[in-house]
Structures are given as structure tokens and as C-alpha cells.
Amino acid sequence: MSPVPKVRLSGGLEICRVLNGMWQVSGAHGAVDNAKAVEAMEAYVDAGLTTFDMADIYGPAEEIFGQFNSQRCNSGNDTPALQSLTKYVPRPGPMDRKVVLKALQRSMARMHVDSLDCVQFHWWDYRDKRYLDALGHLSDLQQEGLIRELSLTNFDTQRLEEITSRGIRISSNQVQYSLIDQRPAGRMEQFCVANNIQLLTYGTLAGGLLSERYLGKTEPNSRAELYTASLSKYKKMIDSWGGWSLFQDLLVALDTVARTHDCSVASVATRYVLDRPAVGGVIVGCRLGVAGAGQHISDSVRSCSPDLKLTEEDCAAIKAVTRRSRDLMALIGDCGDEYRS
């Protein structure tokens, strides 16, 4: 098995190009057994997937990582280093240094670390300009060594330009990016390439909809069929993008490409986004303690393997479908605008 390739962020942290996303333990995807989740993390690390993405609002995600991290540190074995990216998602309110520091200290205590590899800041309302206060304090704390990489989550290009123009160094921006949602190609990519900012993408597999499992299947609409927050969220995105019939055409095209490369539809969909300008890594949800994780891990490793190279013909076949979709920039707006009124 080829080693999982890594990318270096502007502050020097090296992370895997496929990251293990921990939104699935937030409670929106069913009940979570913390002990089983901790145990299941070992299989990802054994496969070379050592980078975990979490948030202070993802239920017990930080605690689960902390338990796993402590077990590894106490084992005495020579184990690969982990990279832990978390998010700071404050409620609206004063953003003085004390408030910001307290939030970071809470995350560090949960994660059992003395400093944070990467803090990805999210803000709900651009009209409330206190996000600039928070980022100023985060930048100061970065200079003091509490944070290695200062990043953003779901900020649009306009605000990204505003923040960097104030001299705040941003390492990455976490945004939705997939064959369905290609809004980052509109404005975001160009700015990020010019300013050494990596895109870390989520929703790249549309919550699992971009897989053989849904090829040739009737449209799911019931709560029983769309039984996780991810499936419900990305099914709505497919509806906006062009609907189930066009989505089936896309799955057919992806399946055809996948067969020529002896891989899965998920691996092709992930590889396509990994090859986009400015994309440093793709976040794929962990199946912690859930059946089928082995195939899930295999698909992730295969997607970033140097042996998987999409040809011009592969990309042309995919684009022949995606160009028939609606313009999500016109419908929704720039990256992250779906989270704001």
C-alpha cells in the first residue's frame, strides 16, 4: 500500500490529503458509543490516515480524540504522529481575549493536548463584525504558540480577502466542494492559490450519495431513506443542482471511469476534487464503530494514491454531465452562504 500523501500548510503542519471527518459523532447520525469509536480510530491510523477533523460543537468528537490520543501516548509504542484539526464555533457575543482563550483551553483539555495543531474559525453572521475581534485574538495566540495553524470554516471569498488584508495569516478554509457543488471554482480557488491558502473540502461524497449504492436506485425522499443528517443535507443539494435524474447520469459516468481504474465511484469523486487547484485535502466522514468501515478506509486510501490518475477523457466524460446542472453560485451564493441569511 502506498503511503498516504501529505500537504504542508503555511505554518508548517503536514496533514494527510484525505482527512478523517468526525461530524458523524455529533449526534446527527445516530447514537455513538464512545468506547467503540475510540477503538475504531486505530484502523484509520494503521492505514496511514492520521489526520482527524473535529469541532467544539461536534458532540463528543474532541473527547473521543482525546481518549484515543491519551491511549496512544501511554502505550509506550513507537506510533505515527496524529494531526488534529478542530473548529472554534462561538455563539454571537463579545469576542474579547478572555472568551477566545477559554474556548481554546476547553478544546485542549478535551483533546489532551498542550497546544492546538489547527483552529478553524467559523462565524454565523457577517453583519456582526466581532469575527474580526476573534480572529485578532486567535492570531495573537498563534504568535504565542498556542495555535500552530489558524484557519477558517465556511468563509466566503469577500471575507477571506478582508481578513487577509488585515495581516492575519490564514492557512486553510474548509468549504463544501464536490462534483455536485463546484462553487469554490468560481472565485475562491483563484484567491487561495494566489495567497497560499489551502482548501479543505467536505461534502465531497455528498454524505455517501456519490457511491455505487445509489446507482440505478429510485429517488430517496422519506426520512427512513435519508436517515442521517448528511444524506438529508446533500440530497437537498442534489435537488438544487439538477435533480435525481441528472444525478443518475453522473453516477453512470463515474461508474464507467471507476471501472477503467479498478476503483470505486467514491474514489473517483474524491480524486476529482483532490486534483482541483488550491485543494489541499478532502475530509471524508469516519465510520467510527459502524459496519463497513474497512471498505470505506480502502476507498479513501485509493483515492489519494499516485496510481489513480484521471485522464483528460475521464474528466471530459464527467464534465459532459456536470455542465448540464444549474449554477449554484447564482442560486446559493459563494462558499458558506447557505449557512447565512
Automatic annotation (TrEMBL):
<dbReference type="GO" id="GO:0016491">
    <property type="term" value="F:oxidoreductase activity"/>
</dbReference>
<dbReference type="InterPro" id="IPR020471">
    <property type="entry name" value="AKR"/>
</dbReference>
<dbReference type="InterPro" id="IPR036812">
    <property type="entry name" value="NAD(P)_OxRdtase_dom_sf"/>
</dbReference>
<dbReference type="InterPro" id="IPR023210">
    <property type="entry name" value="NADP_OxRdtase_dom"/>
</dbReference>
<feature type="domain" description="NADP-dependent oxidoreductase">
    <location>
        <begin position="19"/>
        <end position="321"/>
    </location>
</feature>
<dbReference type="Pfam" id="PF00248">
    <property type="entry name" value="Aldo_ket_red"/>
</dbReference>
<protein>
    <recommendedName>
        <fullName>NADP-dependent oxidoreductase domain-containing protein</fullName>
    </recommendedName>
</protein>
